[in-house]
Structure formats: structure tokens, C-alpha cells
Amino acid sequence: MESDTCCKWPKKYNVIGVDISATTYDGLLESVIEAAKMRQPACVSHLAVHGLVVGSRDPGMREVLNELDVVAPDGMPVRLALNILYKTRLPDRVYGPELMLRVCERADADGISVYLYGSYPHVVKALREKLLQQYPKLRVVGCEPSIFRSLTKAEDKDLVNRVNESGAGVVFLGLGCPLQERFAYEHKGKIEAVQLCVGAAFDFLSGEKKMAPEWMQQHSLEWFFRLLQEPRRLLHRYFVTNTIFLSRFILQFSGLKKYSRSIEER
């Protein structure tokens, strides 16, 4: 789906049913900053294998993801899938935490206000402090944790008003996949800013959790590092989702199966 904003968002390609944007750090950064300066509403997310598989298997979630303006390839396997299926020649993935830092650096330089929403109180507070240490002129005009339940209509309206009245050009969402994508989708056009779903970036950049070393990230081993950190939570997820992703990718690559992008195409 094409955005109705003035910004030109990267082209999307069907990867096992989910529209993934063929984009780079520099290209996406410029689009985000342009939209933020003009206070143009937009929804941007990043998907690694787990989120891609969730979208592929769940028609409702697939519809949500395919309505976002950008779904960048967060994981190396997702980037490789784009390159193999569509010869996009992407040199690197677009990692959520890294893009968040680059956006903050430009926001600091260009006077763009940002809003932090998600995670726990101590995490979002630490994140704000870390960002201001790194970017002293950064205007963090909002900083609030998730309440870990569905918002009432009144609470939702108050949140939207707080964000819009703050003047934020970028709203960083750290609610985790798929909650943050659903939030962005449900508030598309209501929140007058670029909603940037960055998930684990809140934990990593605040210092709450360790980030995989650069060499492991470059060799598609970040999943293994995270598995060592949280084996009970992630063992089943990685085993199941990686297997599903590989099997579905092979079927798509071989032409044995076509994956629909929307409920209507099924």
C-alpha cells in the first residue's frame, strides 16, 4: 500500500506473504526525518524472522504489517531473502536499535522532538538518560512506560493528545512485536508523527539487556547470542520459527507455493 504522505517510502516485496521494504539505513533515515520535520503521520517497523513468521501465519497480523508504511528487514535472513528472491542487493539489514540511534543523532542536529513510549518505568527512564548523554541537545518531549494492558478509550484519547500536543516528530515504540505494530496500525493518522517500532532497542540502548557483539550480528548469529541470554524463553521460539521460515522460503523460492499478501487474496 502506498503512503498518502508527501514522503516517498521504499518499495515493498512479498516475502512469504508479508510486504518487506527494500531499504537501507541511509534511505530510510532520510525518509523518516523528512516526514518528522513536516509532522506527517507514518508507521515504520522492523522485522526479524520471528515477526515475519507471525505475520505469515496470522492473516490478521499480516494485514496489519502490510498496512504499515515501512517494514524494514531487521534480521540478516530477512535481508538475504529479499536479495535472493528479488535481487535487491541490499548491503546490510536495517537493525532497529541502530536506526533509532541514527534517528536520534539527526533529531539532535535538526531540532526534531522525540517521544518514548513502552517498556517498564526504570527502562524508559534509563533510556532517556542514555540518549541525552549521547545527544545532549536531543529534545525528549515525552517519556512514559507501557501499562501492559489494553488502553480504555479515555486513556487512549489522552495518550494521543499528549503525544500530539508535545510536538514530537518521532514516536519510538518499545512495546515488542507484535503489540507495537498493532499499536502503530491502530493509531495511524491519529498520532501526528512518525511512529517507529523499535522493540528490543529500549532494553538494549538503556543497558537493561546486552546486545550481541558486532561480529555476531554481521554473521547472522545474533539469535544465538540472545538464546544464550534467555534460553527458556527463546529456545522454542527460535527452533519453531526458524524452521517455519526456512521451509516457507524454500517453497516460495522454488515456485511451489505462492503466499498471499492479504485476506482478500486468499
What's the short story on this structure?
The protein has 266 residues and is α/β, with parallel strands linked by helices. The chain has helices at residues 25-37, 49-57, 59-67, 76-86, 96-110, 121-134, 153-166, 179-186, 201-206, 214-218, 222-229, 231-254; strands at residues 12-15, 18-21, 42-47, 70-73, 113-118, 139-144, 170-174, 194-197.
Plain-language structure description:
With 266 residues, the protein is α/β, with parallel strands linked by helices. It has one domain (12-206). Helices cover 51% and strands 15% of the residues. Strands 4-3-8-7-5-6 form a six-stranded parallel beta sheet, sandwiched between helices. Helix 2 (49-57) crosses helix 12 (231-254). The radius of gyration is 18 Å and the shape is globular. The model is unreliable at 1-5 (pLDDT under 50).
Keywords:
266 residues; alpha/beta; 6-stranded parallel beta sheet; two-stranded antiparallel sheet; 12 helices; globular; disordered N terminus
- How many independent structural domains? 1
Largest sheet, in brief, is: 6 strands, parallel
Head-to-tail CA distance between termini: 17 Å
Strand content: 5-15%
Q: Mean pLDDT, rounded to whole units?
A: 91
Radius of gyration: 18 Å
Q: Provide the spatial order of strands within the biggest beta sheet.
A: 4-3-8-7-5-6
The total count of strands amounts to 8
Shape: globular
Q: What topology emerges from the helices and strands here?
A:
Layout: E1 12-15, E2 18-21, H1 25-37, E3 42-47, H2 49-57, H3 59-67, E4 70-73, H4 76-86, H5 96-110, E5 113-118, H6 121-134, E6 139-144, H7 153-166, E7 170-174, H8 179-186, E8 194-197, H9 201-206, H10 214-218, H11 222-229, H12 231-254
Parallel strand pairs: 3-4, 3-8, 5-6, 5-7, 7-8
Antiparallel strand pairs: 1-2
